[in-house]
Amino acid sequence: MPVQRLNHAVLYVRDVERSVAFYREALGFEVVMGMRGAAFLQAPGSSNDHDLGLFQVGANAAPSPAGRTSVGLYHLAWEVDTLDELERVQAKLAELDALVGASDHSTTKALYARDPDGLEFEVSWLVPAALLTEELLAGRASIRPLDLEAEKRRYGAQTRGGVGVSVPV
């Protein structure tokens, strides 16, 4: 059977407690298991054993050079089910001074943020598969600034996004 989806991600962080506090406040993750120097967190509504593992490497750890001077992971992306939820997350990330960008990828509406160690992540809403058009699919070739109010008028603030639905390439 082929790969179904990403089950969890693991990050090396400087301070596990600081990172746990951030992901709890920013995204509502809860600790499902912890041990000295490590924590395993689960996203609200997730059926995974855990969605994020955090391993402490210490305060003197250098920043990740990935994408600047070496290959490496660019970011992780988590999906929300409504544009209202994306807006709520946007406000929370801004309040935490973690929000670094917001983009309209046509079929995906995305927020970009950095955690306390500078590791980037994305939170996105996917246009429901039933609403995809040739125009929307073609629009993926460009990136525009995200206008959440316009998207809520277009799709509805409570319209459930394409959670678990694959988007044609």
Low-pLDDT stretches are 164-169
- Shape designation: globular
Overall pLDDT score? 93
The count of strands amounts to 9
CA distance, first residue to last residue: 21 Å
Query: What is the ordering of alpha helices and beta strands?
Result: EHEEEEHEEEHEH
Helix content: 10-25%
Q: Can you summarize the main beta sheet?
A: 5 strands, mixed
Rg of Cα set: 17 Å
Provide the spatial order of strands within the biggest beta sheet: 5-8-7-6-9
Number of helices: 4
**SS-derived structural category:** alpha+beta
What is the beta-strand fraction?
25-35%
Describe the structure concisely:
Helices cover 22% and strands 28% of the residues.
Which key features would you list for this structure?
single chain, 169 residues, five-stranded mixed sheet, four-stranded mixed sheet, 4 helices, 9 strands, globular
Overview of the molecule:
Helix 2 (83-95) runs antiparallel to helix 4. The chain is of the alpha+beta class and 169 residues long. Residues 164-169 have low confidence and may be disordered. 22% of the residues are buried. The longest helix is centred in the middle third of the chain and has 13 residues, at 83-95. It is globular. The protein contains four helices and nine strands. The protein has a five-stranded mixed β-sheet with strand order 5-8-7-6-9, covered by helices on one side.
